[in-house]
């Protein structure tokens, strides 16, 4: 039995303009309680250093509108709560984690306001970004005496 599944992919979409290859490795734990990865920015020519000084990057993780996110006080991660009350943490190396506004484009409901986790960096000085989503608490199981209530929150609409 496997402990995890790992996928590694590379693309050269930035090679011609910036001389950069982007490689992402993601690993999902077999029990579903951990999802971690690494983004790596490499010189497209195989050299030791990325040739372009235009090397700023942004790694983004767009969240579903039903996920409640708050930045941890140490600035090195984000606390996430799912609708079923599971608590997850997102963390990344070197404390470069930000929370920013985003848009969720759902098919039937139209655009909705949401958040995104953002990591900024420069490929020449920090070519490797490691990150992790880890479950902090298991979901609370409903008891037989409780009746689950479905409460629909008012989700702010974005002006178009």
- Helicity range: under 10%
What are the secondary-structure elements, in order, as H or E? EHEEEEEEEEE
Order of strands in the sheet with the most strands? Answer: 1-2-3-10-7-6-5
The low-pLDDT segments are: 141-156
**Major sheet description:** 7 strands, antiparallel
Q: Give the CA-CA distance, first to last residue.
A: 50 Å
Q: What is the correct CATH architecture?
A: Distorted Sandwich
Briefly note the structural class of the backbone. mainly beta
Write the layout of secondary structure elements.
Blueprint: E1 4-14, H1 15-18, E2 20-29, E3 34-43, E4 56-62, E5 68-71, E6 77-81, E7 87-92, E8 97-106, E9 110-122, E10 128-137
Antiparallel strand pairs: 1-2, 2-3, 3-10, 4-9, 5-6, 6-7, 7-10, 8-9
In short:
The chain is mainly β and 160 residues long. 2% of the residues lie in helices and 54% in strands. The protein has a single domain, classed as Beta-galactosidase, Chain A, domain 5 (Distorted Sandwich).
């Amino acid at each position: 039995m496997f402990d995890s599944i790992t996928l590694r992919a590379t693309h050269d979409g930035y090679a011609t303009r910036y001389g950069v290859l982007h490689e992402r490795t993601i690993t999902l734990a077999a029990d579903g309680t951990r999802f971690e990865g690494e983004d790596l920015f490499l010189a497209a020519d195989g050299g030791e250093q990325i040739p372009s000084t235009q090397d700023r990057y942004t790694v983004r993780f767009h969240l579903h509108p039903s996920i409640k996110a708050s930045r941890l006080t140490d600035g090195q991660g984000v606390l996430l709560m799912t609708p079923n009350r599971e608590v997850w943490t997102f963390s990344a190396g070197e404390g470069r984690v930000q929370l920013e506004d985003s848009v969720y484009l759902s098919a039937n409901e139209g655009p909705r306001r949401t958040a995104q986790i953002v990591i900024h960096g420069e490929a020449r000085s920090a070519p490797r970004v490691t990150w992790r989503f880890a479950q902090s608490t298991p979901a609370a199981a409903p008891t037989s005496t409780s009746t689950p209530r479905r409460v629909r929150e008012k989700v702010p609409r974005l002006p178009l």
